[in-house]
Each structure stands twice: as structure tokens, then as C-alpha cells.
Amino acid sequence: MSETAPQTSESTAQERRVFATLLDLAAAPRSRQEFFRKALAAVGQCFSSPCAALHVRLATETIDEEFHSGPTDPRFWRQTVQDVLTETLADGRARARLLCARNSDLRMALVSSSIYDARAGRPGAIALVTRCDEASLREKLVALESIATLVSHLAGSVSTAASQAAAGPAANVTVARAASFETVEQLAFSIANGLRTRLALEQVVVGVVRRRRCKVISISGLDDVNLRSPGVKQIAAAMEECLDADKSLVQQADDSWGADRLSGGHRLHRQWADAVGGACVASIPLRDASGVVAVVSVRRRRDDLLTRDLLTKLLSTLEPLAPAFNLVEKARRSLPQHVVQSAADQWRALVGPGRVLRKAGVVGLLGLVAWIAFGAADYLVSVPCRVIASESRVMAAPFDGFLAATSAKPGDSVRAGELVLQVDDRDLQLQRAHHVSQIAALEQQRLQALAVGKVADSQIAEAGRNLEQARLALVERRLAMCRIDAPFDGVVASGELRHRVGGPISRGEPLLTIAPRTGWKVEIELPQRSVAQVEIGASAKFSSNARPDLTQDICVSAVMPQPQIRDRRSVYVAEAYVDNAADWIKPGMEGVARVDCGRKPVAWVLFHRAVDYLRLNGWL
Q1: Which residue among 16, 240, 275, 300 is least enclosed by CB atoms within 10 Å?
Q2: How far is the C-alpha of 592 from the C-alpha of 385, rounded, in Å?
Q3: Is residue 450 part of a domain?
């Protein structure tokens, strides 16, 4: 902000100087061609333009002028400026185009405006190229339009400079200094008192137009204006009547205007005239490119009529000063005031008639902002997950051996008690036969020892027999374990063993996993930032990678208190049971779970991650 304000002030000062230069050019006797040439040079210097062009069609001649400055080749910009000038001459519309150079921050703008004439309509145009950015593009266009309007008004008076010089030096001094005043009040004070002295008027009142209302800021002969005074209020009402009519209004007792009189019997002007004893009163609107910027009201004695020549002289004197009101007003405003005024202008343009789509867009935007600020929404956490069986049984190798046969593969349905694995038992059968024969032999030895009375030998044989019986029981148990049956009705979830038949297996090695047909659960992987938002009993929806078009309702039943490492990520595992699982759900399916964490403020849902990041990294 500290850099923008000086730039705005400098730009306004340059525009003020070009206004003063143009007024000086018009005041001195010279030809129209010389006036337009010097006027173009003044405008080009004001905008620091490397190339500017002007084309004017008069009744007896056509004037084409060009201006160049700086180190660039005049031919570089000439064709581009001429094209914009031709377009403005064709349709009369002002133009502003922003040009951006590749691989550079340089911004240039092409700006053009029409030059008007009260009798010839639109006789010409002016176009130039200037250094500009997007923020100041509109300001450049408005400034050029104001300058073009002043050039238009001054061009008509160039050929009659001698008669203007005879009108009195005081008026010329006032016009030449119009662009150098610091405040609008100073400009209005100079206009009011200068016109009163020059044209022998009883009273001259100047009011500025703000928000379609007219405010009196200067009355000739008075240092201060009391806006609450009944007389001032009456004059302000007459000025606003002129503003509404958008034309000059005259009220006087003797109707000397004929059929084309300016006054249409407007009531507020008639009341003003009656209040001052039937004096002659008139109001004149001052316009620039943006519309009416000020209203000047004058009063004369009853017997000293406001003639057409006098009104024409007033118009020719005042109209060139209209752009100065906006110029001085902009110069006195600070940057915050510029921002406030711009916002107010945008608001008035919005609430004015028309622009239905823009109004609908603004209403929608305000509704969106209100919803974000005060609304609530469901906060959904999308996390990866996979389907697992709620109860699964792992069939492991009972001991070291060899796989003899398998009757199941992943995806097969099995029934309780059905053989699914067979371990090779041939070695165990041989061990069993050995132990049986040893038991029989030891039993025979015990009986023989008892028969001859050798008690000790009988006891030793009995102990050996008991040992062999224990070994036989161990072999019998292993023989029973060689047959592995399904523990319940279910589905083989994992374990492809067909290629391992005849191969070795190790004790405790997982061979098959059997899961029930129903009772699936979903294992959800929660990141640390979301685990605090997920509560037991929260509803969720599961969508698998295999069938993303279908969803399954699930419910969170547990959240593990300790994190786990999954795919090199630290996550908290939550379990969710599936009620009425669909047929397409299979164990091992992976997908995404959307967990409903309840209603949260919309602003929190949208921005809590960014806020948390700033808190963690910026210690806010």
C-alpha cells in the first residue's frame, strides 16, 4: 500500500499537468493542425508512450499526427497503434488491451478513445501504447477518455482564440489553472467567483454529483456553505432537477427562447425563481466521459434576462472544465478511499437495473460464503481397507513330514469333517508295527521270568513293555494327525498346495486357511490425523476395487490402540463388521472405506488440514 499511493499520486499529477498544457494550447492563437499535433505530444508525454497516433476528420481537411519517444524503433508499434485507431474510428468505442511479453514481466497496454464534436458527431480518435499492469488498465482508459473529451471541447475553440482573448484575461487565467487545484472546493470557488465577475451575474452556485445526488460546495461571494440553510436546500433541489432532466434548464419571466426554449416549466426552478423575487435562474450540467459530474446554477436580476448568447458562452467556458472535477476528486482521495469508492461503484452497478446473471452469481456466491461460515456437513474420511474373515482357521503341518495329498484349493467350499489334507503316514505305520511287535516280545519275556521266579527280570521286561506302549501311543497320535479335516463348513481362503504334493513340510507351517461362508469384517487403515475423529459405532460404506459401482454398509466395531506398519506407513487398524454381506464380497478384497465422523462445521471440513499444518509447522 505504501508503494501504490505514490504511484497513484504521480499519475494524477501527470494528468493534471496535461490538462493545464491543453488549456494553454487552446488559449493561444494557433491553427487546428498545430493544436492537435502539440496536444498529441502532450498526451504521449503524459502516458510515457513510445508511440501515439491521432486522426481527425474536419469539414475541409483531415489531420493525421503521430508521436514517438524513447529508444524503440517507431515502426515497431506503428501498425499495432494504427489498427486500434482504425477500430475506434469505425465504431466509436474506447478500447484497452493488455499485452504481455514472453519470458518477461513487462506489461504494455493499447488504449484508444474517440474525439467528438458537437456538430460533426465523431470526427476522430486518439490511440497510444503505454506501460501498464492489469490493476491500472481501467484507470489509464478513464484518463485517456477524460483527456480526449477535453481535446474535443478545446478543438472547437481554437479558431476563435482571438475572441476568447477579448472576453477577458480573468476567465483565461481561471481556465488555465483548473487542473492545478488541490481540492474540488477550491476549483468550484474559483469557477463561481470568476463567472460571477466576468458575466455580471448575481449569484453562481457549483454543486458536485455524488451517487446521483447533487451537493452544493461553493456559492459565489461566500467563504462557507451551510447545507442546512433553506436557500441552499432550494438551490440543491433545483440542481437535482437539472440532473434528473439531464439538460440545461432556464426559468425567467420573459420567455425569449421561442419554440426551442430550454426551460420546460420545471417546478423546482420555478420555486427557486419565485423565492428570489422572480429573478432569472438557470442550471447547466457538466459532463465528462463518465456522465454528469457537476451542475452549475446561475442567477440574474429579473430585468436582466439570460440570453442564448450568454448561455452559449457559459457552456463553452464550463464544459472543458468537467474532466477537472473527476481529476481533482481522484487526486485528493487516499488509497483506502479509492478502494471504498471502487467498491461502492461496483455495488451500485450491481444493484442497478439489468445484469441479472451477475446478480444471480453474486447471490449464489454470498449463499456459498454463508454456508461455509455457518453451515454444517457430514465429515467423511476415505481410507484404504480390505476384507478379512471374522473367524478363520489356519491348518498347519502337525510335524515334519511329507504332503501325501490335498483335496482342496483356494475358493473351494468344504464341509465340517471333510478331508482337506493328508500327510504321508508310511513311516509312522512302520513305527507302529515295530512298537506292537516289541510290546508282544517284552510281554513274553515278563511271563517267562515270572514262570522261573525271576522277579527282577519280570519287572525289567514290564518296564520295557510300558515304554514301548508309550511310544506306540505317540505314533498312534501322529497317525491320527496325518488326516486333516475341515473344522467347520466354509471356504478355503488361502493355501495352494497342489504343486507341493509329495514335498516336505515343516512342523507348524501354515498350509490352508479356512474361513466361514458368512461373517466377514473389514480391516480399515486409519492415518494418525483421522484416528481421533473415528469412534466405535460409526457408520461407513465399503467400495471394493473389484466392484466400485457397488457399496456395502459396515459399522466400526473396534479401533486398535497401537499403530501398525502397513506398506511402510504407520496406521491405526480399525475393524468394521459387515451386516448382510452381499454375494460379491470375498475375503482378501481391497478397496476404500468412507467413514462418517459426524456433522462438522463446513469451514472446519474445508480448512482444518491447512490450519493443522500451520499449527504444526508454524507454531500458530
Answers
A1: 275
A2: 6
A3: yes
Radius of gyration of the chain (CA): 50
CATH number of the domain within which 556 lies: 2.40.30.170
Residue at a domain's end among 134, 165, 196? 165
Q: In 3-state terms, what secondary structure has residue 130?
A: strand
User: Which 3 state secondary structure label does DSSP give 548?
Assistant: coil
Q: In what side-by-side order are the strands of the sheet with 95-100?
A: 62-68, 51-57, 121-131, 107-117, 95-100
Of 84-88, 144-148, 197-201, 463-467, the least confident: 197-201
For 41, 183, 290, 327, the CA distances from 50, given in Å and listed in that order, are: 11, 32, 27, 24
Instruction: Please work out, in degrees rounded to the nearest 5, the angle formed at the alpha carbon of residue 481 by the alpha carbons of 475 and 483.
Output: 125
Number of structural domains, the chain?
4
Under 8 Å between Cβ of 320 and 156 = no
153 in the same domain as 126: yes
Per the listing, cell 461373517 goes with 519
Q: Are residues 504 and 524 in the same domain?
A: no
Does 457 map to a domain? yes
The three-point CA angle 461-462-467 to 5° equals 95
**Same domain, yes or no, for 37 and 158?**
yes
- How far apart are alpha carbons 459 and 505 in whole angstroms? 41
Strand ranges inside 225-290, DSSP E = 249-251, 280-288
* Distance between CA atoms of residues 22 and 16, nearest Å: 10
Q: Is 369 within a domain?
A: no
Is pLDDT of 119 > 60?
Answer: no
C-alpha cell at 205: 452556485
Distances (CA, A) of 391 to 34, 458, 490: 101, 55, 10
Give the per-residue pLDDT at 95: 87
Q: Could you write out the DSSP letters of every residue in 43-110?
A: HHHHTT-SEEEEEEE-SS-EEEEEEE-SSS-HHHHHHHHHHHHHHHHHH---EEEEEE-TTS--EEEE
Confidence at residue 23, expressed as pLDDT on a 0 to 100 scale: 80
User: Do 412 and 541 belong to one domain?
Assistant: no
Q: Which residues touch 422 (CB under 8 Å, ≥6 apart)?
A: 403, 404, 405, 406, 482, 483, 484
Average pLDDT of the chain is 81
Helix axes 4-27, 322-332, angle to 10 degrees: 160
503-507: list long-range contacts, CB under 8 Å, 24+ apart: 503/402, 503/403, 504/400, 504/401, 504/402, 504/403, 505/397, 505/400, 505/401, 505/402, 505/403, 505/423, 506/397, 506/400, 507/397, 507/398, 507/399, 507/400
Confirm whether pTM is higher than 0.85: no
Instruction: Give the CATH number for residue 240.
Output: 3.30.450.40
pLDDT > 90: what percent of the chain? 9
Within 8 A by CB and 6+ apart from 186, the residues are none
Which residue range is the domain that position 206 belongs to? 167-335
Q: How many other C-beta atoms can be found within 10 angstroms of the C-beta atom of residue 427?
A: 12
Q: Are residues 136 and 200 in the same domain?
A: no
Residue 595 belongs to a domain: yes
**125 close to 62: Cβ distance less than 8 angstroms:** no
19 and 67 share a domain? Answer: yes
- Does one domain contain both 181 and 115? no
**525 and 491: one domain?**
no
